[in-house]
Specification:
The complex is a heterodimer of chains A (182) and B (168). Chain A is 16% helix and 49% strand. Chain A is of the alpha+beta class. Chain A has a single domain (22-181), classed as Beta Barrel (Lipocalin). Chain A has an 8-stranded antiparallel barrel with strand order 1-2-3-4-5-6-7-8. Chain B is of the alpha/beta class. In chain B, strand 2 and strand 3 (103-108) form a beta hairpin. The chains are: A alpha+beta (182), B alpha/beta (168). Chain A binds chain B through residues 22, 24, 26-29, 44, 46-47, 49, 51, 53, 60, 62-64, 66-67, 69, 72-74, 76, 90-91, 176, 178, 182, and chain B through 45-51, 82-83, 96, 98-100, 102, 104, 115, 117, 119, 140-141, 143-144, 146, 149, 151, 153-154, 156, 158-159.
């Protein structure tokens, strides 16, 4: 009987910290921006799912491509039908890890520059990327932000030559997520 | 009397233009009509408004039924609801604000932690957690299930408008 009780305590101690270290959001924000002399194109997405494990540094993002919102309906239609092919590739994901996360003191308010390395899946193409970011702890709430660039051609996104002058060769991406404890 | 001079190439061209004047005018008119129609169509397509959500007829369903249909992920449910205007009714689990200060209403489902996640276009102050509400928005699908973390997914509705709010 005593052994069973001890086993349960060991299991509880082993499992409890794991779930206490997991944070998530289902309403994270991602925006992208393309700037050329002919046209500026921007879009945002407020239904980004992200999971962060502050013990292991594991971080994941997932979004449904159809939820990107553009200022013009035609831009949105072209993005979904012609470029990202949302019916064929409904999701974009990122799975990676925050380097040296153990050096961050989550009990204290502050901002830390971080580097995240992982696999970015867009348009059915996976590419390993390393991006800079900032991890902030404020009143016990954790948020991450990042700005980086991607090249559509890296993900086999074909821009028709007739409009290629209006779409930048590299796209600026910004990410902002405010997490809640699981 | 001098014999008539043969026509040079410039004269030939002028004569031909005079002969085909009517044809050239007709061609020019049609060309301009096609050109302006093309420009008008392009301008219309480029500036056409986003899909009307608020005044559309939405597919009526409860939050729990919508969640269960899309979570299972059969083709029929996906074709019925994804990318369609849906009127969903359910009890409010939580009200949040996203980074752009839009209100996000999570509607309860039969699964703990799984919600119908509705991002509103306009804020509502006259409701609270635990109340029933009807919202109309564009359904984009089920996502976010994470088996590693044991996190249930949500069904996402974007560009939502409140239709009706009922107290507890």
């Amino acid at each position: 009987m005593k052994n069973i009780a001890i086993s349960w305590i060991i299991i509880a101690v082993a499992v409890a910290p794991a779930s206490a270290q997991e944070y998530f959001t289902k309403n994270g924000h991602i925006a992208f921006f393309s700037k050329t002399v002919f046209e500026d194109i921007s879009a945002f997405h407020n239904q980004v799912i992200s999971i962060l494990n502050v013990q292991t540094g594991e971080i994941r993002f997932s979004l449904l491509n159809k939820a990107f919102h553009f200022p013009k309906a035609k831009m949105e239609e072209d993005f979904n039908d012609e470029y990202i092919e949302s019916d064929r590739y409904p999701r974009s994901t990122f799975a990676g890890s925050v380097d040296h996360i153990t050096e961050i003191n989550f009990a204290k308010d502050g901002s830390w520059p971080v580097v995240v390395t992982g696999d970015l899946l867009i348009h059915g193409v996976i590419k390993r990327i390393t991006i800079p970011g900032t991890l902030t702890v404020k009143s016990g709430q954790i948020s991450v932000s990042s700005s980086f660039r991607i090249l559509p051609e890296d993900y086999h996104i074909k821009i028709p030559s007739i409009v290629s002058y209006k779409v930048a060769k590299s796209i600026d991406v910004t990410v902002e997520c405010l997490y809640q404890k699981k | 009397m001098n014999p008539p001079k043969p026509l040079n190439s410039k004269d030939h061209l002028l004569t031909n233009i005079m002969k085909n004047k009517k044809k050239i005018i007709r061609f020019s008119v049609w060309f301009l009509i096609f050109l302006f129609t093309g420009i008008a169509v392009a301008v219309y397509l480029w500036n056409k408004p986003h899909r009307e959500i608020r005044n559309s007829h939405g597919l009526q369903i409860s939050a729990a039924a919508l969640y269960d249909s899309l979570r299972i992920g059969n083709k029929h449910s996906i074709l019925t609801f994804n990318n369609k205007v849906v009127t969903v009714t359910g009890r409010i689990r939580k009200i949040l604000n996203n980074r752009q200060n839009q209100q996000v209403i999570l509607l309860q489902t039969s699964r703990e932690g799984g919600s119908v996640n509705c991002t509103l276009e306009e804020k509502i102050n006259s409701t609270g957690e635990g109340n029933f509400i009807s919202l109309q928005g564009l359904c984009i699908g089920y996502s976010g299930e994470d088996t590693l973390m044991d996190l249930p997914g949500d069904v996402f509705l974007i560009r939502c408008y409140p239709l009706q709010s009922i107290s507890k």
